[in-house]
Amino acid sequence: MILLTLVVLLIGFLVWLSTVDTEVPTQKVEQDVTNEALAK
What torsion do the CA atoms of 19, 6, 4, 9 make, to the nearest 10 degrees? Predict the structure, then answer.
């Protein structure tokens, strides 16, 4: 009986993990890509 309860809890935990929103929103990254060697 205890083993069955542990299996059900494990399955429930795995289902809960699959529904948790862990996605991080993207952020815009801008960098200066000028070539200083060509500017001289």
Answer: -20
Q: Which residues contact 12 (CB under 8 A, 6 or more apart)?
A: none
Over residues 1-40, the pLDDT tens digits come to 999 999 999 999 999 998 887 777 888 888 777 776 666 6
Whole-model pTM: value is 0.51
**Whole-Å CA distances, 3 to 9, 13, 21:** 10, 15, 30
Question: In the chain, how long is the greatest CA-to-CA distance?
Answer: 78
